[in-house]
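Narrative of activities, Objective 1.

The group set out to show that a structural description can be obtained from nothing but a protein's sequence at a throughput compatible with the screening campaign. Below is one input-output pair from the validation batch, recorded exactly as produced.
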Amino acid sequence: MSQQSFLEKVQKNLTANGFPEKKVAFPLEALYEKADKAGVNFNKVREELKTLGIKTETSGEKIIFSMDTDKGNLFKKAQEMMSQMSPEQQSELMNKFQNMSEEEKAALYEQGKKMGLI
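Output recorded for this entry:
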């Protein structure tokens, strides 16, 4: 499984559990094990989630996912837009985003702020 596929699976599980309206917690060790089985570095997945405005924090044996308030509105709007796209379009968009440099992602975020999306 690719990092992209694993990231999408995590996002679907978060949404199924009430995210972004609620904080969501999953067993920390289980996520690292599933990532390892999939051949994915979960720390890299956490970094990618961070660029999407999803904060992760460990608390004991749990990992807690919450929305970065600055990026929350952008995430919600992106979710709304993506729900209207086909799976192929969603995958293509996520691939484009993942292939962006950190500078390009930051510029995109700033552009969203200027447009009033955030």
